[in-house]
Amino acid sequence: MTATLLGIDIGTSLIKVALIDERAVCLAEVETPVSTMMPEAGTAEQDTSAIVADVFRLIREIAERQPSAVRRVAAIGASGQTAGAMAVDGGGAALTPWYPSGLDTRFLSQLAEMKAKVGEALFASNGAWPFMTPRLAWWREVMPEVYARIAMAPSLAGFVLGSMAQDPLPAMAMDATTMTWSGAADIANRRWNRDLVRDAGLSPDMLAPDVPSLSIVGHLGESGARQTGLRQGIPLAVGIGDTVASMIGANVLTPGEVYSVNGSFTNYLVCLDRCLIDQGTERFQPLASPIDDVWYVILYIAGGGFVHHHLAGLLSGGEGPPDYRMLDDAAALVAPGSDGLSFMPYALGRFCPPEPRASAGFHGFTLAHGRGAIWRSVLEGLSYDMLELTDGVSARIEGWRPEALRLTGGGARSALWCQLQADMLGVPAQRFSAAGSAPIGAALAAGAATGVWGDLRHAAAQLRIPGESFAPDRARTEAYARLVARHRRLAEELKPSWAHLAGH
User: Fold this and answer.
1) What pTM was computed for the model?
2) In terms of pLDDT, which residue wins out, 424 or 411?
3) 4-244 and 259-426+473-504 share one CATH topology?
4) What is d(CA 364, CA 338) in angstroms, rounded to the nearest whole number?
5) For position 287, what pLDDT does the model report?
6) Fewest CB within a 10 Å sphere: which of 86, 216, 274, 493?
7) Average pLDDT over every residue of 138-167
């Protein structure tokens, strides 16, 4: 009887749980939506107690489907959103909701104060502007009674693991894969920078313990076992970042590969052999993998998937689910460049590089533009930033060029979008239709942590993911090389208008 591994992923819009065996075959996978409360612009919260309850319910569902396989679970891994913050008390109970990244912007004045106080060292040490430490400062100012009770600010994956552990707080430890957006990291050395936290006027005592990747941080407790249907005592691997878990779950561990995740956030990543910090330009941000010599850089469009879905609904007529096939068919008839129509996708501001006053909009619209041109401009506008990332890496590493493109996420269901991105980048692309790469990545990491596989590369090599290939069209690649220059010029020229509009 072979061992099985359980992986949990808490994304921005979905919770997924997957059960895999030693051949990395997915035996069962379930999911449920995450509810985000957004009563007004700049305000977003997710109920952590509801998240834990949903995780437990999904695990019970898998236990009922696969009772024999669940009895052989050797370890549990979890991944989750990292660009956000929450706080717990000394018993591991949540004191706050989860505030998801740039969707909730009520910490921006505290971030500005922190930038002024700490200076360039803040970005240089973390490789990104933070969400967690300025949120701690926000709690101190607006919720002092909550702040006084804070024992720890864990990652979301760490909180879920702690909620099922025999000893909650140690199970909420964090590894380097979850540190980039903390504001407290020495990311290149995969550890906390406690002096930086003190310089920001905060206490490093509120940081979760930092442990090596693939550490075992606890075991399933009696209450967690009762609520999930699992046996007590199963090892819990340290929680990892959801984007990094997606990389593992798609076996993106080879430097030179580019990864496109068209989900709630539009994410573009490059796999590298080094930590790369874009100091001064700030076009991309580093992510540590659990393997010491594998790193990623990421450029993301906050809420890109929400923009994509919202506009698809409007262009489909506004009633019922969006008709993506109809829109893609119309856009496929339009040449690269969308007949001169450009779309800026920054409905929640621009984060890479940071331009919080940026906004979304169509530019160059005429009465000659039909639905196909409008939709193609949306897909192009969401994709040009992929070239911002790869060109930025090329500028930092002499001789570097992308070698392959992998696509996943809901947007990758669109063959047109996949082909468009292959054409833009000018390299062979492959999309993976198998869902759930993040929970599978978390399960693989848990298996590597407990010795089911010799190491994480061996674990990921077991994957057999069905894919579909897209070959780039050279003429379109050359066209997009010219068009991205136009897009960049437009973004520069729009900055004064963004600033003007943000002031009203």
Assistant:
1) 0.91
2) 424
3) yes
4) 10
5) 97
6) 493
7) 97
Pick the CATH number of 259-426+473-504 from 3.30.420.40, 3.30.360.10, 3.30.1360.120, 3.40.50.720: 3.30.420.40
345-357 pLDDT tens trace:
999 899 899 898 9
Distance of alpha carbon 138 from alpha carbon 201, whole angstroms: 12
What DSSP line would sit under 49-111, residue for residue? HHHHHHHHHHHHHHHHH-HHHHTTEEEEEEEE--SEE--B-TTS-BSS-BEEGGG--TTHHHH
* 60 vs 67: CA distance, rounded Å: 10
What are the boundaries of each domain within the chain?
Answer: 4-244, 259-426+473-504
pLDDT bracket for residue 99 (50, 70, 90): very high
Q: How does pLDDT run across 9-19, given as a tens digit for each residue? A: 999 889 999 99
In the chain, the percentage of residues whose pLDDT exceeds 70 is 99
Supply the mean pLDDT for the chain: 94
CA–centroid distance for 265 within its chain: 7
Of 204, 253, 186, nearest to 441 (Cα)? 253
Q: What is the dihedral of CA 205, 288, 162, 148, to 10 degrees?
A: 30
Using DSSP, state whether 344 is helix, strand or coil.
strand
**How far from chain centre, in Å, is Cα 126?**
16
More confident residue, 504 or 229: 229
Taking alpha carbons only, the member of 246, 102, 80 closest to residue 163 is: 80
Q: Which fold has domain 4-244?
A: Nucleotidyltransferase; domain 5 (3.30.420)
Cβ neighbours around 71 below 10 Å, total: 12
**Whether the bond into 290 is cis, omega within 30 of 0:** no
